């Protein structure tokens, strides 16, 4: 068998496979017939999105760089939000930060370096969660904090906020593991220890053992 | 090769051949059936217990019929096989006994002991004297003259045989010949033949024999082999269809963090299993999902006929999904699969009130309408008097209420006493780099009805449990000393099941599962019988009797060696029951990796360890965070440490929490 040569031959598309991927040479888009597999559709959509963004690029020495214009736009929107926050106008501040996050999603080209985008996202999400926590939008805050965790931001501060927000949502059974995970990162973290005690107390209360 | 074959004309060979084959097949099946009979009896014994009777009472007629039919179907097949097998064996034995030809052959065989009339245990002296006596009797010179020619020859032959027999038992070479070839003269001629009577092979029936061989070799054998091969290919060694397994793997491989993992998603994956497509080709995966949903919501469904099969199979599918999710290190899916498993076992949807709704006789709407207090846990329920509980749950009948409370009070709750890493043969609480530790979890099983007491009331010897002299003992072997867990109260499930716990180990560093879950099926639940009602006990210290309580142990294997570098590593251990809501345990265990100091006295170490356990505050010692570490001023540091820029809004909350707890602790002091 000639498998040792490395590259595996592409799987031939036969009538048995049924689903056929079609390529439109005019708009450079891929499409798929008779397929309801959501994973495959998602993957295809991602490829299409990337192609659409790449097609109008004219620079022959193309090197992905963060777009300065977008960066400034997002930054300005975000900072004006922060200014509102300093003026204690929390709802407006939140609206502006929301807009900044949305803007980042839409205006950034998909090939712009992700490490830069990630930093930007971390900063904005951290501030957004704080604003959400202040304005008692705990569910939104929970979602953003989970997002931060998934984006690799595993620091005690995130766990402090997660525990706090889940305790406010009365979800102590979910809060406690997060609190313990935070304490694993920093066993002497004061706020986390305090929250841990609060979790324990709340657990006893729920179980009718207090 | 001989040109002519000998046939088994006198039927002297084939009965033995068939008998051997029959014994090989029938004996193991008989033993298995006998074992089942005995074990089945013991399970019947337990069914006479109050708990099983209660379970039986709430089981619907339909489910009971299904269980019975399943049991019968399984046992009948074996019994038919055994009966036919033993009838054939007895017929063969009868045939052998009534066949003179076999006796003749047996008589012709050379047996020196029989010839000399001695036994196997006879001494050389006895053999010699027996030979002397016989040789005097049969010696050709000593024979009487009256004998005719035939008798004389027979006697002479007998004399030769006696001589041979004597030699076979005394002379070295002859003895060796007899031992090796069964005859004093050395190897005898052997004949090869066909163990079939001649008439079958050469008579008019021969075409049938050839045809039978043809069928056997051309059809039966290939069919059996291909069936065995295809099942071994189609099903994984865990018993699920390989397409189902690859479906689960595919789901995990393509898992995206954006997925919302809820019971519906898990049930959707389960319902897409190949097993269901094969059994019910007319039902789509949506239909199967609907069947599971209707069971969970305790509703009727259009496809009622498929329900029992779907639910029975789903148990195995859940187990496999949990294993596959663990292999992919996906904590979220593994935990949700376990929760969904619970909803199916208890036929109770996942909700904040699942613990209450899993009980029998509960009127859900009445409960949600009538209570102003938020009661989510069974423990909370038992803070109220019995009649009040009846009113809240909407149970008017007194027997029904008693039965509901009986079930509620027998749902085991686990209280963590101590969770730690242990290395076999070492009394230390630390592990050496590269050693193989396991996680030892000491738990107190208690009823939701019981009053909570601090771990400090439990005598230290009870917690330590193991004798320092027995440190070398295999921790997993030791688990076998604990009794098997009883039947789960799940009357709506078509199969009876034993209670068990899954133990998942998650690395706190990345929040991912590090090994496949281990299953605990043994734990003593005798604590549930202790009378320690939280509504009755007033003075905890006076009324507490440590003798009443037993401490259970979970030993969880740790699939990797301790890290090479010294330091403390944290692992989250989730002990989750697939049977009941409210029986779970979730805690963090630190693994301290440290090179062993040179001089240690194991006994002294143990004593120190016990002392420190006593002084610890309960709840904190479990996780390794002590209150001494907690300093109020730390709260202020947050502002500086935090990466959060411009504003840090929730420091107020932290301060509140801090103050609150310090207030609390000062109050309790």
From TrEMBL, chain A:
<protein>
    <submittedName>
        <fullName>KLLA0C05104p</fullName>
    </submittedName>
</protein>
<dbReference type="InterPro" id="IPR011990">
    <property type="entry name" value="TPR-like_helical_dom_sf"/>
</dbReference>
TrEMBL record, chain B:
<dbReference type="InterPro" id="IPR001623">
    <property type="entry name" value="DnaJ_domain"/>
</dbReference>
<dbReference type="InterPro" id="IPR036869">
    <property type="entry name" value="J_dom_sf"/>
</dbReference>
<feature type="domain" description="J">
    <location>
        <begin position="111"/>
        <end position="182"/>
    </location>
</feature>
<feature type="transmembrane region" description="Helical">
    <location>
        <begin position="208"/>
        <end position="229"/>
    </location>
</feature>
<feature type="transmembrane region" description="Helical">
    <location>
        <begin position="12"/>
        <end position="35"/>
    </location>
</feature>
<keyword id="KW-0472">Membrane</keyword>
<dbReference type="GO" id="GO:0008320">
    <property type="term" value="F:protein transmembrane transporter activity"/>
</dbReference>
<protein>
    <submittedName>
        <fullName>KLLA0C09823p</fullName>
    </submittedName>
</protein>
<feature type="region of interest" description="Disordered">
    <location>
        <begin position="600"/>
        <end position="669"/>
    </location>
</feature>
<dbReference type="InterPro" id="IPR014756">
    <property type="entry name" value="Ig_E-set"/>
</dbReference>
<keyword id="KW-1133">Transmembrane helix</keyword>
<keyword id="KW-0812">Transmembrane</keyword>
<feature type="transmembrane region" description="Helical">
    <location>
        <begin position="78"/>
        <end position="96"/>
    </location>
</feature>
<feature type="compositionally biased region" description="Acidic residues">
    <location>
        <begin position="628"/>
        <end position="660"/>
    </location>
</feature>
<dbReference type="GO" id="GO:0006620">
    <property type="term" value="P:post-translational protein targeting to endoplasmic reticulum membrane"/>
</dbReference>
<dbReference type="GO" id="GO:0003723">
    <property type="term" value="F:RNA binding"/>
</dbReference>
<dbReference type="GO" id="GO:0031207">
    <property type="term" value="C:Sec62/Sec63 complex"/>
</dbReference>
<dbReference type="Pfam" id="PF00226">
    <property type="entry name" value="DnaJ"/>
</dbReference>
<feature type="compositionally biased region" description="Acidic residues">
    <location>
        <begin position="608"/>
        <end position="621"/>
    </location>
</feature>
<dbReference type="GO" id="GO:0006614">
    <property type="term" value="P:SRP-dependent cotranslational protein targeting to membrane"/>
</dbReference>
């Amino acid at each position: 068998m000639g498998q040792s040569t490395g590259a595996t031959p592409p799987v031939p598309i036969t009538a048995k496979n049924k689903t056929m991927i079609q390529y439109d040479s005019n708009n450079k888009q891929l499409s798929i017939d008779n397929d309801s597999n959501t994973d495959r559709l998602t993957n295809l959509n991602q490829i299409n999105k990337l192609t659409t963004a790449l097609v109008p690029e004219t620079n022959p020495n193309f090197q992905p760089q963060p777009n300065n214009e977008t960066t400034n736009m997002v930054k300005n929107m975000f900072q004006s939000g922060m200014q509102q926050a300093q003026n204690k106008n929390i709802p407006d501040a939140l609206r502006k930060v929301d807009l900044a996050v949305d803007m980042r999603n839409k205006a950034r080209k998909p090939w712009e370096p992700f490490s830069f985008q990630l930093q930007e996202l971390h900063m904005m999400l951290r501030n957004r969660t704080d604003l959400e926590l202040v304005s008692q939008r705990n569910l939104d805050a929970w979602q953003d904090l989970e997002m931060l965790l998934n984006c690799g931001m595993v620091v005690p501060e995130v766990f402090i906020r997660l525990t706090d927000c889940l305790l406010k949502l009365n979800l102590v059974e979910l809060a406690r593991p997060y609190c313990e995970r935070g304490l694993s990162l920093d066993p002497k973290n004061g706020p986390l220890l305090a929250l841990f005690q609060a979790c324990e107390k709340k657990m006893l209360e729920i179980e009718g053992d207090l | 090769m001989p040109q002519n074959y000998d046939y088994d004309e006198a039927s002297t060979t084939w009965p033995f051949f068939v008998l051997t084959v029959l014994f090989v097949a029938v004996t193991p099946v008989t033993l298995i059936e006998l074992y089942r009979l005995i074990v089945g009896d013991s399970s019947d014994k337990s069914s006479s217990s109050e708990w099983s009777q209660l379970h039986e009472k709430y089981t619907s007629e339909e489910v009971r019929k299904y269980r019975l039919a399943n049991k019968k179907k399984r046992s009948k097949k074996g019994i038919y096989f055994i009966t036919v097998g033993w009838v054939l064996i007895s017929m063969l034995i009868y045939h052998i006994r009534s066949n003179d030809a076999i006796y003749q052959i047996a008589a012709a065989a050379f047996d020196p002991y029989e010839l000399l009339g001695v036994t196997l245990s006879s001494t050389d002296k006895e053999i010699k004297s027996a030979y002397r006596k016989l040789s005097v009797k049969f010696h050709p010179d000593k024979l009487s003259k009256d004998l005719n020619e035939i008798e004389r020859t027979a006697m002479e032959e007998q004399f030769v045989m006696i001589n041979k027999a004597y030699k076979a038992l005394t002379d070295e070479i002859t003895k060796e010949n007899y031992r090796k070839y069964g005859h004093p003269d050395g190897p005898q001629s052997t004949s090869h033949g066909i163990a079939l009577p001649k008439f079958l092979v050469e008579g008019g029936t021969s075409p049938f024999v050839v045809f039978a061989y043809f069928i056997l070799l051309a059809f039966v054998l290939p069919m059996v082999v291909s069936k065995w091969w295809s099942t071994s290919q189609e099903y994984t060694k865990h018993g699920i269809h390989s397409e189902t397994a690859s479906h689960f793997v595919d789901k995990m491989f393509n898992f995206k963090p954006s997925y919302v993992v809820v019971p519906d998603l898990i049930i959707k994956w389960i319902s897409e299993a190949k097993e269901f497509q094969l059994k019910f080709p007319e039902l789509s995966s949506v239909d199967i999902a609907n069947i599971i949903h209707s069971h969970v919501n305790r509703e009727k469904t259009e496809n009622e006929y498929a329900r029992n099969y779907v639910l029975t199979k789903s148990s195995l599918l859940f187990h496999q999904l949990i294993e596959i999710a663990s292999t992919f290190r996906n904590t979220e899916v593994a935990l949700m699969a376990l929760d969904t498993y619970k909803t199916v076992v208890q036929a109770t949807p996942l909700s904040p009130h699942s613990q209450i709704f899993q009980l029998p006789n509960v009127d859900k709407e009445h409960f949600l309408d009538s209570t102003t207090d938020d009661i989510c846990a069974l423990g909370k329920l038992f803070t109220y008097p019995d009649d009040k509980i009846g009113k809240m749950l909407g149970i008017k009948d007194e027997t029904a209420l008693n039965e509901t409370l009986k079930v509620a009070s027998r749902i085991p709750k686990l209280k963590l006493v101590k969770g730690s890493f242990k290395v076999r043969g070492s009394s230390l609480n630390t592990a050496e780099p590269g050693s193989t530790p396991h996680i030892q979890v000491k738990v107190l099983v208690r009823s939701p009805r019981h009053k909570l007491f601090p771990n400090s009331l439990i005598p230290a010897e009870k917690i330590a449990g193991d004798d320092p002299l027995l440190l070398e003992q295999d921790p997993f072997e030791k688990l076998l000393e604990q009794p098997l867990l009883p039947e789960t109260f799940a009357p709506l499930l078509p199969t009876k099941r034993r209670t068990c716990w899954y133990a998942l180990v998650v690395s706190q560093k990345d929040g991912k599962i590090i090994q496949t879950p281990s299953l605990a099926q043994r734990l003593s639940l005798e604590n549930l019988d202790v009378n320690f009602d939280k509504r009755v006990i007033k003075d905890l210290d006076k009324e507490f009797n440590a003798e009443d309580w037993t401490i259970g142990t979970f030993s969880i294997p740790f699939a990797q060696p301790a890290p090479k570098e010294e330091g403390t590593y944290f692992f989250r251990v989730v002990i989750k029951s697939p049977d009941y809501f409210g029986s779970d345990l979730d805690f963090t265990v630190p693994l301290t990796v440290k090179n062993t100091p040179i001089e240690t006295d194991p006994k002294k170490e143990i004593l120190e360890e016990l002392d420190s356990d006593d002084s610890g505050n309960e709840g904190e010692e479990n996780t390794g965070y002590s209150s001494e570490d907690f300093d109020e001023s730390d709260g202020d540091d947050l502002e500086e440490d935090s990466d959060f820029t411009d504003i840090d809004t929730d420091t107020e909350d932290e301060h509140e929490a801090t103050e609150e707890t310090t207030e609390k602790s000062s109050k309790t002091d």
